[in-house]
Structure formats: structure tokens, C-alpha cells
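User: quick one, sequence for these C-alpha cells?
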């Protein structure tokens, strides 16, 4: 399974901000849209990520207020990224290693979307559920043995 499979299901809605916007505006957008991250873009290029983690660090550093902070001063300016062709297992490993909850998906310099750790976990669980259903269907359709074959098999089985 690849990142492109997650993006196909998730859809293409993206929320971006510029690095010069106020942190207060970004926090308001995150709250109104019920999202945990914003991609920071400048002149059409990815320059950072703002997640609730950076917001909390800024709040603590500023005595509980965002004040006049701008996004550039608090954003992660070296976010972890992947491509649509990256395998989900690799994304999961990368996110766990860096403690990243959100990852921009880039196709060269074009932002294709953002996936979250939740998206990755859901894709893995959905894939495992599908495999389990297929295995159960296969087992349920297993050819039935005749009574004589079952008796012969039981006779060959070691006695405990």
C-alpha cells in the first residue's frame, strides 16, 4: 500500500498559511476547521509545518498567550515529507522515528496533501481487516471432507 492510496480515500482538501501570518490566525483556522496542522507555503513552495505541538511550545514560551507571534517564528522549518509512491510501512517507520503526527506529501515541489498518523494507522487496520475477511471466507469455503476421509484422518492422528 502506498501514500497515494491514502490520499485517494482522504480527498484533496488542503489548508495552508504563509510564514508571515499571525499565529493567532493560524490557531483560529485550526480550531474552526478541526485540524491539527497547517502547511506553511511561501511563493508556492513548502517552507514548514505548523502543528498543535509547535503551538503549545509557543504558548508555554509566551506565558500562555500567542501574542503577536508570527508563524515563521514557531513553525517546524524542516518537516518530514514523503511522496505519493512511498510505501505505508516506510511512512509509519519515519513518523515513529521522528515522533511526527503529520507529513506533507510532495510530488517534486508540488504539495499533494497531508497525511496524519491516524490516516496511516487507519489504512493499516483497514488492510488487515480486508485480509482477515478474505481468509475467513476462504476457510468457510474449504471443501468438506467425506465422513470416511474424516474418520481415516482421525485414526492417523497421534493419540495423546
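Assistant:
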Amino acid at each position: 500500500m502506498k501514500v497515494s492510496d491514502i490520499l485517494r480515500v482522504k480527498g484533496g482538501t488542503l489548508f495552508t498559511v504563509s510564514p508571515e501570518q499571525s499565529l493567532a490566525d493560524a490557531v483560529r483556522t485550526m480550531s474552526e476547521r478541526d485540524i491539527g496542522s497547517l502547511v506553511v507555503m511561501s511563493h508556492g513552495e513548502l517552507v514548514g509545518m505548523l502543528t498543535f505541538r509547535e503551538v503549545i511550545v509557543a504558548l508555554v514560551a509566551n506565558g500562555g498567550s500567542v501574542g503577536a507571534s508570527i508563524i515563521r517564528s514557531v513553525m517546524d522549518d524542516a518537516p518530514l515529507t514523503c511522496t505519493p509512491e512511498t510505501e505505508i510501512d516506510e511512512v509509519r517507520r519515519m513518523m515513529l522515528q521522528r515522533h511526527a503526527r503529520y507529513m506533507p506529501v510532495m510530488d517534486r515541489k508540488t504539495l499533494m496533501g497531508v497525511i496524519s498518523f491516524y490516516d496511516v494507522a487507519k489504512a493499516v487496520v483497514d488492510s488487515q481487516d480486508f485480509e482477515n475477511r478474505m481468509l475467513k471466507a476462504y476457510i468457510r469455503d474449504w471443501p468438506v471432507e467425506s465422513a470416511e476421509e474424516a474418520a481415516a484422518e482421525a485414526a492417523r492422528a497421534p493419540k495423546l
